[in-house]
Design brief:
Blueprint: H1 5-19, E1 22-26, E2 37-41, H2 48-55, E3 63-68, H3 69-73, H4 77-83, E4 87-89, H5 94-106, E5 110-113, H6 131-139, E6 143-149, E7 169-174, H7 186-207
Parallel strand pairs: 1-7, 2-5, 2-6, 3-4, 3-5
Antiparallel strand pairs: 6-7
Length: about 240
């Protein structure tokens, strides 16, 4: 029985209404109504997990996110994370998290992953880790790409939090599952995933209904769309 997750979701939705966030979800039909799946999203905000989880609500599914162990050690967030059965990741001992996530997938859960591992300060898709592809292959479940755009205007790396900012549009776009055939390497699948995520992110960035209010407000756009976000760095190894 889910005792913690539903009240947290209800509280989040209430806050969205209070702040009048303009949330649009596209592609929810790609979330399976039952069974395991890996949900792989871009990462541009500390709030991404909230909105990724919201993207599965039309399918009435909950997401078990993989998150760094320090979040579980915190006296406030720790009990909530454990109560929602999210999966702690100790980067010095990642095998245990991979095993726990794979078992959850086989048990019919949706596991949420940010394959960029850290926030992309360029607001483009960074080099991806191959864990999402490996988990999907290992468990035999769909690998579903998702792009979220807008929450970075509320809270992202290197910027002051503006959690009470109102009327911010948030676009959530979910794509078709990335094929994960057994005879394909995780690295090749990850390359396809990066392409899909790039396409989804570009689509929501170009469809975003607001523009910067002036030169000093261009920080939240990537450089290739006229923003002042840093240029992408060298691709990370998978």
């Amino acid at each position: 029985m889910e005792l913690v997750y539903p009240p947290v979701v209800a509280l989040a939705k209430t806050m969205f209404r209070v702040l009048d966030l303009k949330i649009e979800i596209e592609g929810a039909e790609h979330i399976p109504a039952s069974g395991g799946a890996v949900l792989a999203s871009n990462h541009s905000s500390y709030l991404d997990f909230i909105f990724c989880g919201l993207g599965t609500q039309p399918a009435k599914r909950l997401v078990r996110f993989m998150a760094k162990k320090s979040v579980f050690d915190h006296k406030v967030s720790g009990p909530l994370m454990r109560g929602m059965r999210h999966i702690p990741v100790d980067r010095k001992a990642g095998t245990a998290a991979f095993k726990e996530a794979t078992e959850a997938l086989r048990g019919g859960e949706i596991v949420g992953v940010f394959p960029e591992a850290t926030i992309s300060e360029s607001f483009t898709i960074k080099g991806l880790k191959s864990g999402a592809a490996r988990m999907a292959q290992e468990a035999g479940v769909p690998l579903i790409p998702m792009a979220v755009w807008g929450p970075h205007r509320l809270w992202t790396k290197g910027r002051k939090k503006e959690l009470t900012k109102r009327h911010v549009p948030v676009l959530i776009k979910i794509g078709e599952a990335v094929p994960t055939p057994e005879d394909t390497t995780p690295e090749a699948i990850t390359a396809t995933l990066k392409q899909r995520l790039t396409e989804l992110l570009d689509a929501v960035q170009r469809a975003y209904p607001e523009k910067p209010s002036g030169p000093d407000d261009r920080w939240w756009l990537p450089a290739h769309l006229g923003g002042t976000a840093p240029l992408p760095g060298p691709a990370a190894a998978v």
